[in-house]
Amino acid sequence: MKTATQNTLCDITGQKTGIVVMDKQVMAVNWYEESPDGGVPVMSPVGTPVSITAEGGIQVLSEERVEDIRRALPGRIVSEGKNDEGIHQIKAEDMEIKYDEFHQIPALWGFDLQKGACPTRGANGDATPTGGTVYRIRCGEHEAAVIAPDGWE
Prior knowledge:
A hairpin with a 5-residue loop joins strand 4 and strand 5. The chain has a 7-stranded mixed beta sheet. Strands 4-5 form a two-stranded antiparallel ribbon. A two-stranded antiparallel sheet has the order 7-8. The chain is globular. The chain is mostly beta strands. It has helices at residues 9-13, 31-34, 104-108; strands at residues 4-6, 17-22, 25-30, 40-43, 49-52, 58-66, 76-82, 88-93, 96-100, 132-139, 142-149.
């Protein structure tokens, strides 16, 4: 398989933000700010994003346009009811959300947790699928899926 080497995730995706998936670990992150050195954001032992880099940069293994980026995630978000303020209490099934400052991952399933993400809903009230591009990348020994959702910065 032929791979292309790019400098940064911004170069690859044309965006500053998106989702990084490594196995079942998911991060909604601003890679422009978290990886200014051109690396790939991962979680540090203290729970904040840090950048990993490799000689040779980031290799794009594949690129696929999808109509619903939730299908590129390893699991889903489900409701466990609402609290006294009417805010959904949610849980992730089959994925571990390692970083999501504005609760953008739950918003993909239509949950507004009042942290800045704005879920979109159709006329029937169901979450509207978000399209985007899924890149399979390699950075040194690390492989990940990088998702560039439509409408994100």
